[in-house]
Amino acid sequence: MAPLYAEPLRSALGPARADVFTFPAGEWNKTRETWAELTDQLLRHEYDRQSAIIGLGGGVAGDLAGFVAATFLRGVPLVQVPTSLLAMVDSAIGGKAGVDTAFGKNLVGAFHQPRVVIADVATLRTLPPVQLAAGLAEVIKHGAIADAAYLDHVVAAVERIHAREASILIETVRRSVEIKASIVGEDEREQDRRAILNFGHTVAHALEIVLGYEMLHGEAVAVGMVAEAAIGEALGVTEPGVGDSVRHALERCRLPLEPPADVDRQAMLDHMKRDKKARAGTVRFALLHTVGSVARDQDGRYTIAVPGQAIEEGLGKLWS
């Protein structure tokens, strides 16, 4: 939440009182300690239940702002103003908020829907290319789980996206928001279909933790989708060739297909067992059936229990 936005925010709020609280950028600052400091600042300035929290910035800012809004005085209104592509198409949509712990990512948090999300693609003009590419990982995920034609369209238009053409950026943000909002609208608290939004994320979250968040979230999700497509094909729930399609889309969008060679695979497996979708030590994955649709288990659930050996084999293919 950059200070340079202080005056525009005050202008937008009119005569209302407004303070801007900042914190260092980076996933490693999405902690209970940062949440506590932000909450203490609100208490110190004597804000009350008539207040609102505005989350201005990327995914980390939005997640923290959401968690502060959900817990301050047992809940105050939230406005999300995402300024990165990843936040616009994914993290600012759906009402998830939270912080990371040493045991895993987003293990402490809440569901707290924003009153409004304001996304202006003009803010993407100054977004570093690597950050723009990272946002495309979530765009690819949306196409992979729900709309094959959309995925094809994004891949075909990727150079226009990287050139920051406003029309294609607006089109991309709009369609991704439509896909995510539709899924969340059916299952706000992730008891069923919303779990499909986690495709690629079980591996990604473990990778981020093991690397100390040195890899961008979108980059980790890209690697996670490669691994989880391989796991799905090995189990026979994902049609052959789907993994190649996912890899092609990621490569076209300038995203990594493999993690650093020295990543501790056993540490990744240990973290996956603490994933929110894990049950009694068994890791459950959201896996593709085809490009544009997800697989379901024999009970109709949108996550599938995967044996440890299959996970190890899927991870092994990342370094092959």
Helical proportion, percent range: 40-55%
- Please tell me how large the radius of gyration is: 19 Å
Strand order of the largest sheet: 1-2-5
CATH T-level fold name of the largest domain: Dehydroquinate synthase-like, alpha domain
Uncertain stretches: none
Tell me the CATH architecture of the largest domain: Up-down Bundle
The total count of helices amounts to 13
Average pLDDT, all residues: 92
Structural class: mainly alpha
CATH uppermost class of the largest domain:
Mainly Alpha
What is the succession of H and E elements?
HHEHEHEEEHHHHHHHHEEEEH
CATH superfamily of the largest domain: Dehydroquinate synthase-like - alpha domain
Number of domains: 2
Give the oligomeric state: single chain
Largest sheet: 3 strands, parallel
The end-to-end span amounts to 41 Å
**Coarse shape:** globular
Percentage of residues in strands: 5-15%
Describe the structure.
With 320 residues, the protein is mainly alpha-helical. The protein folds into two domains: 3-119, Rossmann fold, CATH 3.40.50; 128-319, Up-down Bundle (Dehydroquinate synthase-like, alpha domain), CATH 1.20.1090.10. The chain has helices spanning 6-13, 32-44, 59-71, 85-91, 129-146, 148-156, 158-162, 166-186, 201-210, 217-235, 242-252, 265-272, 308-316, and strands spanning 53-57, 78-82, 96-101, 104-111, 116-117, 283-285, 288-290, 293-294, 304-306. The strands form four sheets. The protein has a three-stranded parallel beta sheet with strand order 1-2-5. A hairpin with a 2-residue loop joins strand 7 and strand 8 (293-294). Helix 4 runs parallel beside helix 8 (166-186). 46% of the residues are buried. The mean pLDDT is 92.
